[in-house]
Design a protein that fits this description.
Belongs to the IMPDH/GMPR family. With 502 residues, the chain is an alpha/beta fold. 32% of the residues lie in helices and 18% in strands.
Length: 502
């Protein structure tokens, strides 16, 4: 006979945190959001600790190398999407590991025989006013000069004027040699009153620019997530099909942690993948798995040797698995049960296996609820897809800027490996949609706002760490009328009045 759960499952939106005592020390500035990413034994420290409890989803429309660098600067971690060729994914990982904070590869480059018109078009395309003039017009060519907005006057120069006639020639360009530290480069910038400093090798080839405007930004990245070689950390998604070829390539490229990307993790396919990793690499390779929605699924993966477990089936904004297959569970209930299983496993074995809430985050406060319910960190797709750094196009829809966002189970992504159950190597039916999300600007600004809200709520609960929040949190289910009461009500919002008058 089928098993029936006694209680209905719930979403984050059905819960509220009840405030607790807040001491004078409970201020957002005193809150630490550090949290374990990988498993560890009692009395030991995890090999990887996140500085903020945020990771980005393993999705084509979310996690590329650009977003990975931006998130690592804030202290989180991206998992590069695996629904691409092994070579392409490894290349993205490699670019993140090769990225040097403060050292910016030049994306505005031109040849000396091109024209002012080309300069203006390039500036319009990239938004950058500093243009490198190289022998081959690439960002790694031999530097011949530099063009900035001070080198030309649109009103006084024909657009046909060739670049070499008005550029600042290399003889007058102050540069730094390869190997110079960021501190040394910044010293040159300030001493020589420069806005940009090119970094050249011994053959005069351009490698990077260091910009004055980035100086304060680098000072602000106190939470950046770095490995022991001071490189940004990055994860990578894998599947249960080509893992024997994909994993070695990703590790060679420098991936710090892997994660099996699957809609359902309670399967022999994941166990076989994890067993192979442990046989080949022991515990040196860090790998997460999922997704599961109950304690049995967690125990299965923990026993298989996983480093962290992802929770969530069907709760993502672009996921229609619950509609098409009738499987899943409310995200809040799933997190609560898996957290209990995690704590029981820790008591039994002395091994703490972190859990990640993946999906179901609609509002910023849902992130805090997930943490309070026991999640060590969250994985976000829609949230990050809205930002400048995500890999999708920004489009204008009915006068509003939007970003494209599609699921891995959609016809657009056709990531059949994620939904593979050992059958035909194809996506038999859709489990995701193709959509738009409102454009929200830069990752940095939005993440800092979100995390300030999280810290403020933690202070309301009298907690200065995520672990303390989990111990002190008091949660209550809310009725439908309570949800209405929690928002603006019984008033006429000025924005709605202004829109109606237009």
């Amino acid at each position: 006979m089928a098993f029936y759960f006694k209680e209905p499952c719930h979403t984050f939106n059905e819960y509220l945190l009840v405030p607790g005592y807040s001491s004078s020390e409970c201020t957002p500035d005193n809150v630490s959001l550090k949290t374990p990413l990988t498993k560890f034994r009692k009395g030991e420290q995890p090999d990887i600790t996140l500085n903020i409890p945020m990771t980005s989803s393993i999705m084509q429309s979310v996690s590329n190398d650009t977003l990975a660098v931006a998130l690592a600067k804030e202290g989180g971690l991206s998992f590069i999407y695996g629904s691409q060729s092994i070579e392409a994914e490894a290349a993205m990982v490699g670019r993140v590991k090769a990225y040097k904070a403060g050292f910016v590869p030049s994306d505005s480059n031109i040849k000396p025989d091109q024209t002012l018109a080309d300069i203006l078009e390039l500036k319009k395309k990239t938004g950058h006013s500093t243009v490198a003039v190289t022998d081959d017009g690439t960002g790694t060519g031999k530097l011949l000069g530099v063009v900035t907005s001070r080198d030309y006057r649109i009103s006084r120069m024909p657009v046909e004027t060739q670049v070499h006639t008005f550029m600042t020639p290399i003889e007058k360009v102050i540069s730094a040699p390869m190997g110079a530290t960021l501190s040394e480069c910044n010293d040159i910038i300030w001493e020589k009153k420069l806005n940009a400093l090119p970094v050249l090798d011994q053959d005069g080839r351009l490698h990077y620019f260091v910009f004055r405007k980035d100086y304060s930004a680098h000072k602000e990245n106190a939470s950046e997530l770095l490995d022991d070689k001071k490189r940004y950390m990055v994860g990578a998604g894998i599947n249960t099909r080509d893992y024997k070829e994909r994993i070695p390539a990703l590790l060679e490229a420098g991936a710090d942690v892997l994660c099996i990307d699957s809609s359902e993790g309670y399967s022999d396919w994941q166990k076989m993948t994890l067993s192979w990793v442990r046989e080949q690499y022991g515990d040196s390779v860090k790998i997460g798995a999922g997704n599961v929605v109950d304690g049995d699924g967690f125990r299965f993966l923990a026993d298989a040797g996983v480093d962290f477990v992802k929770i969530g089936i069907g709760g993502g904004s672009i996921c229609i698995t619950r509609e098409t297959k009738g499987i899943g569970r409310g995200q809040a209930t799933a997190v609560i049960e898996v957290a209990q299983a995690r704590d029981e496993y820790y008591k039994e074995t002395g091994v703490y296996v972190p859990i990640c809430s993946d999906g179901g985050i609609v509002y910023d406060h849902h992130l805090t609820l997930a943490l309070a319910m026991g999640a060590d960190f969250v994985m976000l797709g829609r949230y990050f897809s809205r930002f400048d750094e995500s890999p999708t196009n920004k489009v204008n829809i009915n006068g509003q800027y939007m970003k494209e966002y599609w699921g891995e189970g959609s016809n657009r992504a056709r990531n059949w490996q994620r939904y593979d159950q050992g059958g035909a190597k194809k996506l038999s039916f859709e489990e995701g949609v193709d959509s738009y999300v409102p454009y929200a600007g830069s990752l940095k600004d939005n993440v800092q706002t979100t995390l300030y809200k999280v810290k403020s709520t933690m202070c309301n609960c009298g907690a200065l760490t995520i672990r303390e929040l989990q111990q002190k949190a008091k949660l209550t289910l809310v009725s439908s009328t309570s949800i209405v009461e929690g928002g603006a009500h019984d008033v006429l919002l000025k924005d709605s009045v202004n829109n109606q008058s237009k």
